[in-house]
Amino acid sequence: LADPAMILAHALTTITDRRGQIAIPEWRPDSLTPAVRAALDGLPIDSEDGPAINADWGEESLTPVERAYGWNSFAVLAMKSGVPEAPVNAISAHARATCQLRYVVGTDPEDILPALRRHLDAHGFEAVRIEPHDRGFFRATRLDPDHPWVAFVAESLTRSAGRAPHILPNLAGSLPNDSFTDILGLPTVWVPHSYRGCSQHAPNEHVLKPVCRDALRLMAGLFWDLGEGGTPARAAS
User: Fold this and answer.
1) Fewer C-beta within 10 Å: the chain N or C terminus?
2) Among 73, 77, 125, residue whose Cα is nearest residue 98
3) Among 146, 139, 183, 182, which Cα is nearest to 167's?
4) For the whole model, what pTM was predicted?
5) Nearest to 100 by CA among 198, 7, 172
6) Distance of CA 219 to CAs 48, 91, 153, 162, Å?
7) Burial class of 118 by CB neighbour count within 10 A (0 to 12, 13 to 18, 19+)
8) Backbone phi and psi for residue 13, each to the nearest 5 degrees, phi listed first
9) Each residue's pLDDT tens digit, 139-148
């Protein structure tokens, strides 16, 4: 009998190589421009209060910060075949993997699953079925680091904090930001207030008091500056 778990495992190994480099051309973004690389250059990514960064994982030609904020990554979130808690001496009839592609601007979201289908078929895995997640997905967004609103917010935060903020072209997580950028046509600047050891999405998710105090100070200053005027002119529609 053909083993579904072995078939699925081999199918998954065609999606990336042994260090996680994506092998599907349509999943490799075209948006890591010199301007984006310049914005990412020098940003910190290692921290004592967060998970260790694997320098040998991901696109070999990129820096760790470019991989995190400027490139796509594929992950297997869960896998199952049979009953792991009570295995029996037989080949399971089914195998399932829940996977995720974290993608940035420069990737066509409508072609992600069709591209995967073409890729698996080309490698002889026509029997592997693809089912989209019922929660859907968020479209990737990015505001040019040179945008006037970025400069306005950065200047306000610098005045309040006494030091310049780190500016990311986009976040590395998932947000419904396309509701503002694509539907409403608005520039967006996110000012997150947290730290790397916050255990986000985990049972011990938390925030520190000093972070909260900084957040209150920074956002009060930003809203004050918004009220004072001198904001960037509205783009002509």
Assistant:
1) C
2) 77
3) 146
4) 0.83
5) 172
6) 26, 58, 10, 14
7) middle
8) -70, -15
9) 999 998 889 9
The string of DSSP letters for the chain reads: ---HHHHHHHHHHTTB-TT--B--GGGS-S---HHHHHHHTT-----TTSPPP-TTSS-TTS-HHHHHHHS-EEEEEEEEES-TTS--SS--S-EEEEEEEE--TTS-GGGHHHHHHHHHHHTT-TT------TT--PPP----TT-HHHHHHHHHHHHHHSSPPP--SS-SS---THIIIIIS-----------TTS-TTSTT----HHHHHHHHHHHHHHHHHHHH--PPPPPP-
Helix axes 148-161, 209-228, angle to 10 degrees: 120
Total count of residues recorded for the chain = 237
Which of 131, 179, 127, 136 shows the shortest CA–CA distance to 6? 127
Domains of the chain, first to last:
4-123 (3.30.70.360), 148-228 (1.10.150)
- Residue recorded with tokens 């002509």: 236
Question: What are the tens digits of pLDDT across the range 34-84?
Answer: 888 998 998 888 777 667 888 899 999 999 999 999 999 999 999 999 999
- In the structure encoding, which two tokens stand for residue 102, read together? 């974290």
